[in-house]
Amino acid sequence: MTSPDAPDQSTPVDQDDRSSPGLAVQPQLPPEFTPLDRTDQQKDTEDRRFLSWTDKDRANAAAFTHSDQWRVLRILGEFVEGFDALAEIGPGVSIFGSARTRPDDPMYALAEQVGADLARAGIAVVTGGGPGIMEASNKGASEAGGVSVGANIELPFEEGVNRYVNVPLKFHYFFVRKTMFAKYANGFVFFPGGFGTMDEMFEILTLMQTQKLGSMPIVLFGTAYWSGLLEWFKTMLLHEGKVSPADLTLFTVTDDPDEVVAIMIEAITKSRTG
Fold first, then answer.
1. Residues of 74-87 as b/e, b for ≥16 C-beta within 10 angstroms?
2. What is the pLDDT of residues 117-160, one digit of tens each?
3. DSSP string spanning 184-219?
4. Of 123, 149, 153, 204, which sees the most CB atoms within 10 A?
C-alpha cells in the first residue's frame, strides 16, 4: 500500500527545480559555448617565452648581455637617457681640462670663476663630471645657482661624479658621452689637460672644420700651455698643407676668464637673434 505522502514515482523530476532538496543540479551551457581545450594552454607563445626563467634561460640571458646586440640596446639607452636629461637645459658651454688639476692650482680657481660667471649669465656648464678642472667648473656653476651638468664615465683610475654636479649622467661609452658635449653646447672651453682633453679638443675642431657641427666659439685657456702646440700647428700642419689658414681661426686663445664669458654670451646672443 502506498503512503499518501510518497512522491508519485510516475511523475518525472524536473532537473531544473533547484528548490528540490538533495538533487544534484547540472548547469546548462549555452549552445555556442566551446569548452577550453587544455592542450591550448601549452602552446609556445611570445609571452610564455618572455616570462620563462629556467636554468637554460638564465644561461642564455647572461650570455646575451655580452653580445653586440645587447650593447646596441645599451648604447641606445644611453643616448635616450642623455637626450631626456639635457633637452631642456637651455644654452650651455662644455668645459674640458685635466682631471689631475689640484684645488691649489691657479687653473682650478680660474675654471671655477668661468663656471660661476657662465652660470650667472644663465648659461649651463657641462663637464665630464670628474675631479680637477671639471670639478672646479661644476663648483663655480653650482655655487652660483646655475645648471651644473656632469657627463661622467667610469674609469679605473679616477673618481666618480664630483659633488658639485646637479644634473648627473653616467655613460659606458666615450662616443655617446662626446655626443652630449657637442650636441648641447653653444661653445667650448679647453683648459690645460692631457690625452682626454686633447682627444675632445681635436674631435670638436674636426667636427667644426668638416662642418658637421655649426660654427660656435672654441676657447683654449692658458696661452703658455697651448703655445707649443699652436706653434707646431703653424710650422708643421700649415706649412705642409695639412690644414688651411682658415682652420687656425676656429679657436681663440686667452688667459682672461672675463673674455671667455664675453665670447660665449656674444655667440649665444647672436644665435638667438638669427
1. eeeebbeebeebbe
2. 999 999 999 999 999 999 999 999 999 999 999 999 877 766 68
3. T-S-EEE-S--HHHHHHHHHHHHHHHTTSS----EE
4. 149
